Batch of 4 targets.
Target 1
Amino acid sequence: MGCSGSKRTRGDDNVKKIRKPKPWKHSELITRTQLMQMRDEFGDTAPHYGGRTEIDCSMQCLD
């Protein structure tokens, strides 16, 4: 299977199904202020671990 016009073949029964990942949840209840602080800390440290600054900046613009 691949194209919209393709048909099933005998080997397609072993295909793994993709599931939507579960949303991230913190183990304890946190306030919006704490969440914003965690995001800021992540944005500050991400470039040191290979994260890209421009992606972090674009994510901050979405808030």
Target 2
Amino acid sequence: MPSTHKQDKPWDTGDVDKWKVDPFKPEDNVGGTFAEVSSYAVLFPKYRETYLKAAWPPITRALEKHGIACTLDLVEGCMTVKTTRKTYDPAAILNARDLIKLLARSVPAPQAMKILEDGTECDVVKIRGLVRNKERFVKRRQRILGPNGSTLKALELLTGTYILVQGNTVSVMGPFRGLKEVRRVIIDCMDNVHPIYHIKELMIRRELAKDPELANENWDRFLPHFKKRNQSKRHKPFKVTDKSKKTYTPFPPPQEESKVDLQIESGEYFLAKGARERAVREKREEGMREKQAEREKRREKEFAPPKEDVVKKEKKRKRKEDHGADGGERKEKKERKKMKTGDGAGAGDE
């Protein structure tokens, strides 16, 4: 429904920033002090105890300016913030809650205290539940950091935020738009999309924002579109069936027999429970025996002696035998000659 309230607004000029949030001062609180005390408590790990103990005095002074009281319990490992009578800003307790949350997630105290300023928000992204495998999670978390922290630094410069990767969470501080972009980059990184693609897109958007002519145009034609190429290396199936040889039949193929049907055919279905279990056990043992026999055959092949060259040895034997036969013939000839020479000599004497 169109508005019927049409009046001149001399204060609404083009140079007015409608999105600017003015700081909340004590005189802006017309209602006075709060009726009830609001408090938040956050647990912190054991290794943060020494650091928090040393950094707690400046944190207390920073919260006192906003009228917030804070306590550090080292026995229970707990930080608590609550409103007091001096609290004038209703949002101060929420900023104090974010402060102790960031301190528990290992954010340095000087950086965490910037959350008390206007225009600075925080977001803690839980990343452990996004990836099931621990090794894969560690690799993808490392991608957010990049080599020597270069990817993290690029994200911080492009989004105007502060990012800290600690354990199973990622703590982010900065403006709302930067938090939204960083959360998208982190979740996509855990879904196996490298942050470098988002960094390229952010760099292009940053350059396009400088051109006033493109302020009211769609930027999709300038942005890169990366397609996910996760194709299988095997382009052809293992079993290629030639359907041209099959004759067309309008009837569907016969229904495959179920496990119960196969048991009825083999008679196993009508056996008692003990006999059926025995038959299954025997079948399993028979398969195990066959596999064991095959395994033993394979092992025996490794220890089988190599084949010898029998042909060469036989040739050597034949040569020796031939030489032996020639030697015997020569001996017989010599003996005959001796006999003849002996007979000739005896006849001459006579």
Target 3
Amino acid sequence: MRERTILAQRGLFQVIRDGGNAPVTDVVERLTGRAPRTLAQYAAENAEVWRAE
């Protein structure tokens, strides 16, 4: 892998790790008309779909 690519990826991961792409907005609620759910809420509400038969 080229050094330039590695440096770019390191920079991207640093932004993600620092929370730079995690701003909270009201977009989900405005688009769907419902408040957003956490991943834990989604998983609990849909657990049966993911269970093995």
Target 4
Amino acid sequence: MLADEKAGRRLVRKIDWRLMPVMCFTYGLQYYDKAILSQAAIFGLREDLMIEDGLKYSWVSLIFYFGYLVGTYPISLLAQRYRIRVVCSVICVIWAMVILCTPACTSYAGLLVNRFFLGVVEAGVSPICMLVVGLWYTHSEQVLRSSLWYSCSGGSLLISPLINYGLGSITGGSLSPWQYMYLIAGAATFAWGIALWWLFPDSLEKTPGFSTEERQLLLERVKLNNSGLENKDFKLGQFKEAMSDYQFWAIMFANARLYIIAGACLPVILGCALLWKLPTSMQAGRILGFYLINFFSSAWVQCIGLGTSNVSGHTKKALYAAGTFVGYSLGNIVGPLMFDAKYAPRYDNGFIGLMVCFVVCFCVALLLRQALAAENRLRDREFGTQSDVGISDDLTDRENKNFRYNI
């Protein structure tokens, strides 16, 4: 038994080294390319394209998420239907081409179109990462791994200002500094997209670098999840089940996970209350409120984990992964609109709206936990404790009565 545990830990470390660096860099690069806009705006983009008006610039930022909404489901279903490695490599090359075309934009309308299509193509990266984590890791391992690749969004924001400050200092040549930023980013992304053809993880059976014994152990680990293997057939029944599943809608719109997420909502609610009620003169308390609002990240990471660990059936899992980031896009569209300029400088109405959203999240997380706990108790009573199913059976969590929800 001890030897098996050591072999299992050794295999998990090997999976981590094979998957995590590639997914972390891919997600960080995607976030880097998306976020160049704010730095390019400082180095001449707004003046060159005549979008100095605050509302125009806001729409250039927001339209990315409209594209994200459009692209999330189609690309997620492509990743479910075809080899994940191929889909991720292709979309990375395409989004690199969109980035490389950005310096050619000469008008506000052209930039809007460019940003919309960037959102469409980049929409597949996050759901693909969720699918990969769900395929390779057990339920107990998934949240930590999801938090690792997602945290690279913050990592890219630490590095990108330094790189783009240097590029912004370029004064020679026929291009503006912001155009160099996009050309360098696009070239790097294009090169990485080509590399992903060989680097990005494929299915358990086809990814190179694992021995026959390790592959057998990989399949045994999947068995522990009671979620079956990757299946390339789109199953309409699983689509209908996902659309009618209350858990799907709770994850999509509440972005919350049970007790951990309910707890993470409380500091955000307190932070909004401080910013709403404290007078402007109490700067220390208001700064504390801003810090407390950032606790939402811990809730979001748990939600990403829910999208893979609490669902079975490959088509349904792909829909859950996409739905999670549809909710993400909606939040990024609605959120800025809550902070209308007419509420400046305190934006009390915006913080009230944000507080209401997280109160709803808190309640939904607790209700979802109660519903899933009741379902687990019902299954234990009617079907007994968990047992393994055949790993080739692509059953949903509703069809597989051995499945138990993580709460």
